[in-house]
Structures are given as C-alpha cells and as structure tokens.
Design goal:
Length: about 60
C-alpha cells in the first residue's frame, strides 16, 4: 500500500466513492475531513468522517 497523496486519492475514488468497498474509508481518510460543498449556489463547509462518507457511498451504490 502506497502512502503518497496521489495514490491515496486515487484509491479513495476508485474504492470508496465508487461504492466498490465503502468500508475502506477508515483506511483512506483522516479521522475528520473538512469538505467544501456547493449545492444550488449555496456554499457550505461540512465535516466528514470515514463512517459518514462510507455510509453515503453505500446508499449511492444501492
């Protein structure tokens, strides 16, 4: 397993966000991550955790 930033992001997108194995979020994310989102031109900053991110991916994949 590589720890360089490019590999970590690539693995996160390929494995977690794709829904292939959302449980790997614990391995590929920090304990908390500050995420910036824009929905309908309304910017917001939220805190994500491996558990919340993995759960989102399971719902999308279902």
């Amino acid at each position: 397993m590589s720890h360089d930033p490019v590999s970590v992001v690539r693995d996160f997108l390929r494995v977690v966000r794709s829904g292939a194995d959302p449980r790997q979020a614990d391995r590929l994310m920090a304990t908390t991550v500050i995420a910036h989102q824009v929905q309908a031109e309304d910017a917001a900053t939220i805190t994500r955790t491996p558990k919340s991110t993995g759960g989102d991916c399971v719902q999308v994949a279902a």
